[in-house]
Specification:
- The chain has about 325 residues and is an alpha/beta fold.
- The chain has two domains: about 60 residues, Phospho-2-dehydro-3-deoxyheptonate aldolase, domain 1 (Alpha-Beta Plaits); about 250 residues, Alpha-Beta Barrel (TIM Barrel), CATH 3.20.20.70.
- It contains eleven helices and 14 strands.
- The strands form three sheets. An eight-stranded parallel β-sheet has the order 13-12-11-10-9-8-7-14. It has a four-stranded antiparallel β-sheet with strand order 2-3-1-4. A two-stranded antiparallel sheet has the order 5-6.
- Helix 10 runs parallel beside helix 11.
- Bound molecules: phosphoenolpyruvate and manganese (II) ion.
- The site of phosphoenolpyruvate has 9 residues, from loops.
- Manganese (II) ion binds next to loops.
C-alpha cells in the first residue's frame, strides 16, 4: 500500500501517521521526493482498510500496490534511485561504464587492462575472482588471490572494483575490499545469499537469471532490499532462447520495462548478452539508446588467450573505439559518458 501525502505536511503530523501505521504491525518505507512525500507500507496490508488513512488530513491519496514487489516498485519512489559508489553516481546523468576481464588472471593482466579501460573513460573495473563455470574442469578463478590482484589494480588506478560473489562464506572479504558486489545470473535466485547481501550496505549488481522473468528478477531485488540494503543496480545480460548463433538473446525491451516498473538503476552487459565480440558494439549502442544507466563490458589484453569468455572479450583498442562511438549516442539521450 502506498500513501501519498499532501505537499508541505508538518513533520509532527507525519511522525504521528508513521506511528499509527507501525502500531498496526506494518513497516514504513519513507521516500522524500522533490515534490511529495510517499509512504510505502510493507507487511500484511490486505486486511487494512484504506479509509482509515484516507480520512487523515495530511493524506492526498492511498493506493494498493498490485505487484508482488513493493520496495523496488517505482510507485514507492517515483524519483529514480541513484547508487553512489566511491563518489560516482549510477542512475544519474552520467552513464556508468564497468569494464575489465571476465576473470582476473594475473597481476600484470588486471593492472594493464585497468589502466587501458580507465584511459578510454571507464569508471569501474570488473574482474571475476570466483567464477561460476559450467564445467568443474574449467578455470575456476583465482579466488581470494584474484581479489587481492583486483585491489592492487584499484590502488594503481583509483578505479572502484566490481566482482562476483558465489558464496556468503567470503562475504566479509568482499565487504572489506569490493566496491560493488556482483550476483551472477546463476545465483539470481539464491535467496539465502540475497538475504545476506541485504544485511550489508555495499552496492549489489544483480544480474538477471538467464531463464527468469522480469518479475522474478525484481522479486530477487526485493529480497535484498527487504533486508535493508537499498543500493541495488540491475543488470540485463541476455537470456537462453532457441537461438544458437548467439550465446544469449538480449532482451532489448528489458531496460525500458524495468525502468517503468522500478526506481532502481538498470545497466546492460552486452558481452554475455551476445557472447560474440563483434556484436558487443551494436548491442552496447542499442543499450544506450534504450535508456540504460550504464554498461558492463568484458575487455581482455589478449582475448585469444583468455582463460574465460575470450570469444566475447574486446581488446582495449576495440573498447576505446566503442567508447568514442557511444559519446554522441549518450548525448542524444541527454546523458554523458
Ligand atoms: C560474468 O560477469 O563474468 C558472469 C559470469 O556473468 P553472468 O552471471 O551474467 O553469466
Ligand atoms: Mn564472463
Amino acid at each position: 500500500m502506498i500513501i501519498v501525502l499532501k505537499p508541505k505536511v508538518p513533520e509532527i503530523k507525519l511522525q504521528e501517521l508513521i506511528k499509527e501505521i507501525e502500531g498496526i504491525g506494518l513497516r514504513v518505507d519513507l521516500s522524500r521526493g522533490a515534490e511529495q512525500i510517499i509512504l510505502g507500507l510493507v507487511g500484511d496490508t490486505q486486511s487494512v482498510n484504506t479509509v482509515r488513512f484516507e480520512k487523515n488530513e495530511i493524506v492526498a491519496k492511498v493506493m494498493r500496490v498490485q505487484e508482488p514487489y513493493k520496495k523496488v516498485n517505482r510507485l514507492f519512489k517515483p524519483d529514480g534511485t541513484i547508487v553512489t559508489v566511491a563518489g560516482q553516481d549510477i542512475g544519474g546523468k552520467k552513464l556508468a561504464i564497468i569494464a575489465g576481464p571476465c576473470s582476473v588472471e594475473s597481476e600484470e593482466q588486471i593492472i594493464g587492462v585497468a589502466k587501458d579501460v580507465k584511459k578510454s573513460g571507464a569508471g569501474f573495473l570488473r574482474g571475476g575472482a570466483f567464477k561460476p563455470r559450467t564445467s568443474p574442469y574449467s578455470f575456476q578463478g583465482l579466488g581470494e588471490e584474484g581479489l587481492d590482484m583486483l585491489i592492487l589494480a584499484k590502488k594503481e588506478t583509483g578505479m572502484p572494483i566490481v566482482s562476483e560473489i558465489m558464496d556468503a562464506n567470503v562475504l566479509d572479504k568482499f565487504v572489506e575490499d569490493v566496491d560493488i558486489i556482483q550476483v551472477g545470473a546463476r545465483n539470481m535466485q539464491n535467496y539465502s545469499l540475497l538475504k545476506e547481501l541485504g544485511k550489508i550496505k555495499t552496492p549489489i549488481l544483480l544480474k538477471k537469471g538467464f531463464a527468469s522473468t522480469i518479475e522474478e528478477w525484481l522479486m530477487s531485488a526485493e529480497y535484498v532490499m527487504n533486508e535493508g540494503n537499498e543500493n541495488i543496480i540491475l543488470c540485463e545480460r541476455g537470456m537462453r532462447t532457441f537461438e544458437t548463433f548467439t550465446r544469449n538473446t538480449m532482451d532489448i525491451c528489458a531496460v525500458p520495462i524495468v525502468k517503468r516498473l522500478s526506481h532502481l538503476p538498470v545497466i546492460v552487459d552486452p558481452s554475455h548478452g551476445t557472447g560474440i565480440s563483434w556484436l558487443v558494439e551494436p548491442a552496447a549502442k542499442a543499450s544506450v539508446s534504450l535508456g540504460a544507466d550504464g554498461l558492463m563490458i568484458e575487455v581482455h589484453n589478449c582475448p585469444d588467450e583468455a582463460l574465460c569468455d575470450g570469444n566475447q572479450a574486446l581488446t582495449p583498442e576495440m573498447f576505446d573505439n566503442i567508447m568514442k562511438k557511444l559519446k554522441p549516442l549518450a548525448q542524444l539521450e541527454g546523458r554523458t559518458i
